[in-house]
Amino acid sequence: MEMLRFFFFFSLLFAASNAADFCVGDLKGPVSPAGYSCKVEDKVVVDDFVFSGLGVAGNTTNIIKAAVTPAFSAQFPGVNGLGISLARLDLAAGGVIPIHTHPGASEALVVVQGEICAGFISSANKVYFKSLKKGEVMVFPRGLLHFQINSGGGTAIAFVSFSDPSPGLQITDFALFANNLPSTLVEKVTFLDDAQVKKLKGVLGGTG
């Protein structure tokens, strides 16, 4: 009996020692919903686990006056398979990240400069929002619609983390008005009139 116990314990240790420590994404290989295939371990280098892009401000000279710098598996192969990723959020004065959703991940946001009004809408259509100051953190549950708005006078900066290396993104305004979905259909599903839909399509580059 003691020998069986020893053998069982040794087998567990051996199995654990052979488990993969990581799966650095092979960005040249195929990608699936489960992520990238693993890079050959002999070709893994320390820089696969280091990302420097979050130290640089994003370009906020655009229609939303905001920029998101992602450190997802496509940019940061070391997070592939780890269930985490990060991003930097830059909001110029008046900047906004429109209502959007991340189908694959929950999100945590920490403000490091300025003031950001952030919130989300539950599946029961209850709204949770607050103006966050430097050092404050807010979480956004997976898949729920949420937003961030610069509610201060100067530039606002936040860092965000996600519970998936590839959280996905769908911005509601762009989904409705930045493609070729026929205006008549958009009008029916949004209760907007034709003039409003055509105006928004014109602003966001949609057709139809």
Descriptive report:
- By secondary structure, the chain is α+β, with helices and mostly antiparallel strands.
- It starts with a helix and ends with a helix.
- The chain has helices at 2-17, 172-177, 183-190, 194-204, and strands spanning 31-32, 35-36, 66-71, 85-91, 96-101, 107-113, 115-121, 127-133, 137-140, 145-150, 156-162, 170-171.
- Strand 7 and strand 8 (127-133) form a beta hairpin.
- Belongs to the germin family.
What is the ordering of alpha helices and beta strands?
Answer: HEEEEEEEEEEEEHHH
Shape descriptor: globular
Distance between the termini: 76 Å
Helix/strand structural class: alpha+beta
Number of helices: 4
Number of strands: 12
What does the radius of gyration come to? 22 Å
Helical fraction: 10-25%
Strand content: 25-35%
Q: Strands of the biggest beta sheet: in what spatial order?
A: 3-4-11-6-9
* Main beta-sheet annotation: 5 strands, antiparallel
Family: Belongs to the germin family.
Keywords: Apoplast, Disulfide bond, Manganese, Metal-binding, Secreted, Signal
Protein name: Germin-like protein
Binding site for oxalate: 102, 107
